[in-house]
User: Fold this.
Amino acid sequence: MDDSVEGMRLSTLPLPAFLVVALLGCSHAEEEKAKLAEFQKKADERVAQAESQAKTKLADIQKELDDVKAQLTKAKEQAAEAVKSAQSSAEDQAKAAEAALTKARQAFKEKARLELAEANKDLAEVQGKIGKVPAKSKAAVTALMQDIQKQQKAIAKDITAFDAATLDTLRTVDAQVKKDLAVLKAKVRTVRAKVQ
Assistant:
């Protein structure tokens, strides 16, 4: 068949067939456009829904963040108040401890002074009898009396040491006072034995 026969066949086709073919082509394009529009619409809806969910989640996260910030601020305030209270309490306790230490120092000093006064009273009784000591014992008694005076000065120094004593050294100072008082009392007893 040649082109002319083919051309005739086409020209013999009724006009409505061309229209049907053209319409079919157009309707297919219209369907594609409609499908594309439907896909675009669905995609836009999904994007809008995702944006809405993201905004909701962002709002929830922002609310949680604000709550955490408020809790943090409250916790900082409470911590600052606790520190201030602790400092105040520590200062009060330090003052109370210092007052108690001062009272303890005074009590130890008073006790040591009383014991020294008793030893000095015994010594005063003995000193009245020193003049009656025989000549051969007089040198020994005089030496003991000089030792007693040194011991009294040592005890006075020990008693003064209470003023600077700390809680840790208070017992040590008290032990030294007791030791020196014991030595003093022993020397007074020795002098007493020699003068009788």
The chain has a mean pLDDT of 84. The chain has two domains: 3-72, 99-195. The radius of gyration is 57 Å.
